[in-house]
Each structure stands twice: as structure tokens, then as C-alpha cells.
Structure to design on (663 residues):
């Protein structure tokens, strides 16, 4: 075992008394430091059971689980759990405690001083995007679902655990909020570099969140353990392909982020510019519209020649609405925003909402072509049988070492 | 002698008896809370243990109070002790029952979260489960208090303290000078005392809630100002056994 390995499952099984077939059967998996591993599979396949065995909420019947090199059964379960962040779908914030108390629970159990806990709570609230002064003393029921889940994540991060277990953490929120939470979490993870085991039944979420994805079948048997790119282009068997569902190629748009592709520049005008000067800029550039931005360079509206009224002093209120995507958004999000926008282009903004560039459909097509090219190069050494039960070379793009459970493709 | 004259002439005695009455009720309810909450905590996770605990407590409640007090004379003699024991036994059912209901109704996601972030069983009980079940437990305590108020009057039969002595001596001298006054002052005293104590417990509920739990259920179960059965039914929508038991008790009084 190298230093790189954070969690290792060795032939782990779980059977319940009175049940003929085990709930989890012979699962082996190696998880490296800083990875997000997504366990994805139909409901009842044992993915949550597998995850809960890592922090011993469920005790394995046989097999070994190593976290950071030590066998979990040799550790005190409560100590172990305090060192592993835990986020569940229902959030599970204690309704009779304030946000600050909830977040500070684990540090308190670890015996931190009051002042240290207070400082940490404020730091975490900042981190998850909640203003401490405003939210510290609120009760969970005074928060929206998305805010509650943010606090849930903050609570799990409180004692800075190297490992986090997340059981459908964004499953209970509406699609819009879920999307935002996912993006925020990915941004957070870039900074924190935790080792994360993430359980979901939503394959799209798996593709978005995972560095590697384990597609689980019945009894939590690993059908394929691979990078999202490999899963989409090379499903190990029919079942995996079925689970991925229709539109695998469309889903590949989820694999690239807007920040990773080239963007175009729009012609910018300021809100307090005069319509006459805007018209001149528009004519000079030969573009179909100019983009108005406020003093913080936040995009406001697309303004075409028709929207410009020379009678007005400023550009305030002129033009049509703008759709924006963050750098972290996927190309899929960008396409979605483009289709929703009358202009057929979407504006890329940074974390603070400031203008970074424009993506239009041509740009997107070029990025897709690039992805195809990359894939073709990567797939070249693969010898593949028609059924897709392939002898594959290890995935190379986002992971180097094949999973121990990967050889099980049937 | 009119009722008011009677009240004035026996002022000291009546105050003493009222205090005694309140003391023995509060003591037995306190004891029953201690024992009942512990039994509830010990049994709520196991359906069979839970059923046994509630059934036994319900069985005790169906023993007519005269009979139980009489039976306790043999091992415990006359006076304060048998009264205290009998009242404590009667007070157990609502408290056990509500503790069990309150604890089992804590959202499983919360107990799982408590375990998941590394709370031990005891810590989870003390910081999460009992605080969340508290409004329901307190409702049980209020029902118990109301019930034992009435039964405590009968404890005078075995030489126990309290306002029951007024009632019994009134009934014994039926037709005598002050018999009606005595029976009346005893009965009214118990009722007024019950209302006052219930009001205090209601206030305690508001204070310990800390304005944090205003779910519909907990509000419904603690806000009843009428003593006795309606409250019991409100607190224990799931507890027909108690409602039935409370009715039996009502018949006995």
C-alpha cells in the first residue's frame, strides 16, 4: 500500500441474520487521497451499506476496511466517526440547536476551547457561503433547504476530517439548488482536497461529481470502476450501459467545465455610457450586440442596435436579458443557458459574478470536437470485443492506478 | 357555619393540608418521572420491552386505588409511605408511555446524524433525543400530576396527608355540623390545587422549550389547560391504552 491510498476495502461483505443473500458481497476498492469516489447504482443495491461500513455505522461481516492505513475495527467507533465527516440526504441538523451549535458539535466533543470553536464556526460559515453574523444564531428551521444542506456540509467539515462520507447529500433539494450546491461543493473541494465517498442513484450527478465512479449492481458488486470519461465511452457491459441511459454522448458535455475551454470576447459597454457611443462601438465591432456591464463588470443586458434610443442619457434598462454560467459550470450547463437565451450565447462569469467572456454555439462545437479527438487518441490501445466486455487498459486521463475491484467486469 | 366562615376558622389547618397534598403529589410525580423516564429509555428501542413496560404500568393503573392502598398497609404500614408508593405507581404510566412515544418519534435521520458525527449513545440521548422528546415527556408528567392529585385525596384512607382528610371526615360525619363544608373544601381544594400546579407545569414547558420547538405536535400536547383526559388524549394520539386507562381512573375518582 502506498501513501497515496486513503481508504481501502478488502473483500468486504455484509450479511444480515435471516437473509439468504448478503447485502454486500466481496467488495474491494482502493480510494486515493483527494479523490471523489461516487458509488452509484439502483436503489437497494447496497451502496449506502457499503459507505456506512467505512465509519462503522454498519459493521462488516467479513473483510477489512483500512482508513489511512489503520483497520477501522481496531479503532473506537465514536473516535473514528469524529475523524470522518458525514453528510446525509435529510441533513440531520438538530432542530433545537442553533446553526453555530450544530457546526461546533464535533469540535466540542474533541475538546476544543470555546474561542477556537467560535472562530472555526465563523470560518466554516464563510466557506460555505453563509454570512456568519446573519446565520450563526439561527435555528435550522429558519433556513431554506439549500442553506440547511450548506450548514450540514459545514458541520461535517468542522474538525477538518481528511475523509468525508456523503449519502445523497443534495438529493432532497430542487434541481436548481442542487446544481448550485454541486458547483459550490466542487469549488470547495478544489481548495480542501478531501477524500470523499459520495453515494447517489443519479448517474448525471455521479458524472458531475466523481473523479472516479463505481457502478454497483446487486449486492453492491462492482460492475465497473472507472473515470466518468471511460464509463461514458466504454461501458463494461450491457447493465452499465443501460444504467448510463440514453444520451451518453450528450452526457459527455458534463465532463468539461466552461473554465477549461477558450471563450470569446464581447464588446462591453458601461451602463452610464450614452446610447450614441454604444452604437458607435457596435458599428465598429461588427457584432450583432454589445454587452452592458455595471461598475463591477457584472454583465447586465445584451443591447442590439434596435434597443438603442438616442433620446436616453444612459443605457440603463436597455436591451434583452443575459444568461450567465460560472467557470465551474459544465458545458452541459452552458448549452442549457445558450438555449434559454435569446442571443444564442451565454456569458461566462467568475465567482463574484464578474464578466470573463462569452461562449456561443460555435465555441461549444469546437470544444466537443476536441473532446472527441482526445477520446480517440486515448481509446486507440484498447482491444474491444463487440459485446463491450473488454480487456481494457487502465484509464489514464484522471486516474492512473486501476482499482482492485475493477477486474470484476463480467 | 357558612362555607366561608368554615374556611376562616380552619385557615391554618387547611393551608397545612393543602401544602401536604401538593408536596406528596409533587414528590410522587418527581419519583415517577425519574423511574418512568429511565424505564422508557431502557425499553424504547426494543418493541417487546416497550410493550411489557407499558402494559405493566397500565395494569397498575387499573387497580382501584382503595384496594392498592389497602394492600400496601401490610408491607408498609399506615401513614405517609404507602401513600407515596401508591401515588408513584399510578403516576408511572403516562410518563413511561410519553417517554417511549417521545423518543421513538425523534426523526431517525437525527439519531443517525448524531451517531454519524461521533456521538456515543449516552451523549446522543442527553443532547439530542431527550431534549427533542421533552415536550412529549412533559405532557406525560402533567397528566400524571393531574391524576395523582385526585388519587392523593383517597390516600387519607391509610392515614396519608393532605386534603383527603377533610373529605373523609366530612363523609364520616354525614349530617353533622360541618360535614358538607368539609367535603366541599376538600374537593374544591384538590381541584384548585390541580389547576394551579398544572399552570406551573405549563409555564415550565414554555420556559424549557426555549421557544425553539414550535412544531404542531408539541404545541398541541402541552397547551391544554384543562386537566385530565383531554390532555392525555391530545398528548397520546397513538396511545389508546392510556386514554382508556385515564377513563378508568376518572371513574374511580
Amino acid at each position: 500500500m502506498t501513501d497515496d491510498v486513503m481508504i481501502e476495502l478488502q473483500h468486504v461483505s455484509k450479511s444480515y441474520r435471516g437473509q439468504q443473500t448478503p447485502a454486500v458481497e466481496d467488495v474491494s476498492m482502493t480510494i486515493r487521497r483527494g479523490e471523489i469516489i461516487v458509488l452509484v447504482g439502483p436503489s437497494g443495491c447496497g451502496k449506502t451499506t457499503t459507505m456506512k461500513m467505512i465509519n462503522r455505522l454498519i459493521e462488516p461481516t467479513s473483510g477489512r476496511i483500512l482508513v489511512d492505513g489503520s483497520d477501522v475495527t481496531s479503532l473506537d467507533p465514536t473516535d473514528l466517526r469524529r475523524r470522518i465527516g458525514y453528510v446525509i440526504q435529510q441533513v440531520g441538523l438538530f432542530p433545537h440547536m442553533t446553526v453555530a451549535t450544530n457546526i461546533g458539535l464535533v469540535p466540542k466533543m474533541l475538546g476544543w476551547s470555546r474561542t477556537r470553536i467560535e472562530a472555526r464556526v465563523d470560518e466554516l460559515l464563510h466557506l460555505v457561503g453563509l454570512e456568519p453574523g446573519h446565520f450563526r444564531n439561527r435555528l435550522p428551521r429558519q433556513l431554506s433547504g439549500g442553506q440547511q444542506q450548506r450548514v450540514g456540509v459545514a458541520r461535517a467539515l468542522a474538525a477538518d476530517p481528511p475523509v468525508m462520507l456523503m449519502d445523497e447529500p443534495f438529493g432532497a433539494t430542487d434541481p436548481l439548488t442542487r446544481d448550485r450546491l454541486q458547483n459550490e461543493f466542487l469549488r470547495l473541494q478544489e481548495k480542501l482536497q478531501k477524500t470523499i465517498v459520495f453515494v447517489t442513484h443519479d448517474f448525471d450527478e455521479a458524472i458531475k461529481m466523481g473523479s472516479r465512479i463505481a457502478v454497483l449492481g446487486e449486492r453492491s458488486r462492482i460492475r465497473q470502476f472507472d473515470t466518468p470519461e471511460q464509463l461514458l465511452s466504454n461501458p463494461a457491459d450491457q447493465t452499465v450501459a443501460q444504467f448510463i441511459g440514453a444520451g451518453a454522448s450528450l452526457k459527455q458535455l458534463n465532463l468539461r467545465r466552461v473554465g477549461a475551454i477558450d471563450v470569446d470576447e464581447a464588446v462591453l459597454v458601461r451602463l452610464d455610457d450614452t446610447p450614441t457611443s454604444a452604437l458607435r462601438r457596435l458599428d465598429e465591432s461588427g457584432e450583432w450586440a454589445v454587452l452592458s456591464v455595471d461598475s463591477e463588470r457584472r454583465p447586465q443586458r445584451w443591447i442590439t442596435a434596435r434597443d438603442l434610443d438616442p433620446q436616453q442619457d444612459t443605457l440603463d434598462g436597455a436591451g434583452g436579458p443575459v444568461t450567465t454560467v460560472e467557470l465551474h459550470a459544465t458545458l452541459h450547463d452552458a448549452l442549457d443557458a445558450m438555449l434559454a437565451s435569446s442571443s444564442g450565447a451565454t456569458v461566462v462569469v467568475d465567482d463574484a459574478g464578474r464578466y470573463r467572456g462569452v461562449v456561443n454555439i460555435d465555441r461549444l462545437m469546437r470544444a466537443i470536437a476536441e473532446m472527441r479527438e482526445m477520446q480517440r487518441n486515448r481509446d486507440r490501445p484498447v482491444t474491444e470485443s463487440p459485446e463491450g466486455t473488454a480487456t481494457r487498459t487502465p484509464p489514464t486521463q484522471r486516474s492512473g492506478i486501476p482499482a482492485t475491484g475493477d477486474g470484476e467486469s463480467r | 357555619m357558612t362555607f366561608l366562615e368554615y374556611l376562616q376558622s380552619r385557615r391554618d389547618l387547611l393551608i397545612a393540608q393543602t401544602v401536604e397534598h401538593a408536596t406528596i403529589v409533587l414528590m410522587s410525580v418527581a419519583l415517577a418521572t425519574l423511574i418512568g423516564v429511565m424505564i422508557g429509555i431502557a425499553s424504547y428501542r426494543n418493541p417487546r420491552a416497550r410493550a411489557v413496560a407499558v402494559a405493566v404500568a397500565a395494569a397498575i393503573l387499573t387497580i382501584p386505588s382503595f384496594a392498592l392502598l389497602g394492600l400496601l398497609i401490610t408491607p408498609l404500614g399506615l401513614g405517609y409511605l404507602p401513600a407515596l408508593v401508591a401515588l408513584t405507581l399510578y403516576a408511572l404510566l403516562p410518563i413511561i408511555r410519553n417517554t417511549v412515544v417521545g423518543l421513538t418519534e425523534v426523526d431517525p435521520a437525527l439519531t443517525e446524524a448524531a451517531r454519524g458525527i461521533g456521538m456515543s449513545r449516552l451523549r446522543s440521548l442527553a443532547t439530542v433525543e431527550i431534549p427533542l422528546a421533552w415536550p412529549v415527556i412533559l405532557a406525560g408528567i402533567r397528566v400524571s400530576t393531574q391524576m395523582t392529585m385526585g388519587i392523593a385525596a383517597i390516600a387519607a384512607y391509610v392515614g396519608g396527608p393532605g386534603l383527603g382528610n377533610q373529605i373523609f371526615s366530612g363523609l364520616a360525619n354525614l349530617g353533622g355540623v360541618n360535614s358538607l363544608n368539609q367535603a366541599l373544601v376538600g374537593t374544591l381544594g384538590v381541584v384548585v390545587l390541580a389547576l394551579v400546579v398544572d399552570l406551573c407545569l405549563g409555564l415550565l414547558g414554555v420556559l424549557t422549550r426555549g421557544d425553539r420547538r414550535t412544531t404542531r405536535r408539541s404545541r398541541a400536547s402541552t397547551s391544554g389547560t384543562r386537566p385530565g383526559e383531554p390532555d392525555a388524549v391530545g398528548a397520546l394520539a397513538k396511545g389508546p391504552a392510556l386514554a382508556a386507562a385515564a377513563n378508568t381512573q376518572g371513574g374511580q375518582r
Q: What stands out?
A: Chain A has 15 helices and 17 strands. The domain at 5-247+401-408 of chain A is CATH 3.40.50.300 (Rossmann fold).
